[in-house]
């Protein structure tokens, strides 16, 4: 069954020729689609039960002749499906520059927001589509758009290791230290995900190792995960070596999870081996509990200097 969506946002059944139009679209039969539209008995924006229009379907199939034909027939470039997708979002998901350019030319709303706050720029940033980021910003995309959880374009690019996208977004004026609802920054998420180049780039751009709402810093998370290169990069931007709001330190995390090299690095930068966590335990206590003999030796040697 196929429908069109009137202004009330309710579905309304239309003729069987609309079903034929969708079938012709799926078959890639441009001539049949044009003939059906010319009859006047079907609507260029008729949708299926999921609210998908012919234009959305053609773009999802990367059918350029069909897309051009539908645009020439006046297809609504800003219609949205039940899933909250638009033709523009589908084109970006498909990494289809030619379709994105055509949709913008025909008046696509580049700042349309989905129910979870998604936008074309956020989608492009998450996908790492440098060309789309540049095109959208040049076309007036909202650089401050964020998902409902507070993730912005820099965060999404950093999370997925798209360092070149991070560079361009920051050059275009996006914020380097924007914090998500839970306090997570782009630097923090890049550190957690092991994206060393992204961490280094954010550090060079002035990012600070700000703690998440639970008190954990990027250095703490990198020490926990065993990301040696990232720990080194974070130490270069003056990350906090003392006790955090979560009652632990990066040295505690490294000792607990057996990351010997990171323990050495942190001690070399002046981390205090005598610090006690909220349970009254030092990094040495944790290493002894876990049976990490080499880390135990390192920490005992350090304690002799005090």
From TrEMBL:
Q: In the record, what lineage is assigned to the organism producing the protein?
A: Eukaryota, Metazoa, Ecdysozoa, Nematoda, Chromadorea
Q: Please give the superkingdom of this protein's source.
A: Eukaryota
- Protein name as catalogued: Ankyrin repeat-containing protein
Recorded source organism is Pristionchus pacificus
One of its Pfam families is Ank_2
Q: Which residues form a coiled coil?
A: none
The protein's matches in SMART domains, at most eight in alphabetical order, are given as: ANK (SM00248)
């Amino acid at each position: 069954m196929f429908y069109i969506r009137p202004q009330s946002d309710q579905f309304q059944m239309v003729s069987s020729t609309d079903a034929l139009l969708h079938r012709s679209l799926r078959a890639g039969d441009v001539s049949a689609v044009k003939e059906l539209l010319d009859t006047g008995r079907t609507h260029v924006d008729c949708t299926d039960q999921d609210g998908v229009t012919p234009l959305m379907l053609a773009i999802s199939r990367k059918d350029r002749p069909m897309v051009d034909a539908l645009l020439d027939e006046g297809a609504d470039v800003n219609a949205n499906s039940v899933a909250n997708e638009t033709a523009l979002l589908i084109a970006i998901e498909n990494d289809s520059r030619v379709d994105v350019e055509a949709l913008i030319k025909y008046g696509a709303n580049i700042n349309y927001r989905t129910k979870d706050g998604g936008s074309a720029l956020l989608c492009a940033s998450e996908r790492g589509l440098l060309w789309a980021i540049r095109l959208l910003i040049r076309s007036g995309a909202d650089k401050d758009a964020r998902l409902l959880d507070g993730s912005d374009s820099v965060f999404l690019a950093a999370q997925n290791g798209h360092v070149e996208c991070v560079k361009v977004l920051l050059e275009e004026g996006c914020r380097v230290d924007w914090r998500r609802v839970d306090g997570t920054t782009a630097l923090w998420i890049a550190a957690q995900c092991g994206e060393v180049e992204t961490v280094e780039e954010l550090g060079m751009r002035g990012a600070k190792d700000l703690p998440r709402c639970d008190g954990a810093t990027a250095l703490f998370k990198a020490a926990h995960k065993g990301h040696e290169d990232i720990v080194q990069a974070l130490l270069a931007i003056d990350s906090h070596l003392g006790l955090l709001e979560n009652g632990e330190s990066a040295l505690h995390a490294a000792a607990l999870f057996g990351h010997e090299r990171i323990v050495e690095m942190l001690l070399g930068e002046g981390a205090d081996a005598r610090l006690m966590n909220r349970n009254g335990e030092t990094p040495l206590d944790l290493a002894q509990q876990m049976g990490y003999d080499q880390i135990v030796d390192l920490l005992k040697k350090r304690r002799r200097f005090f």
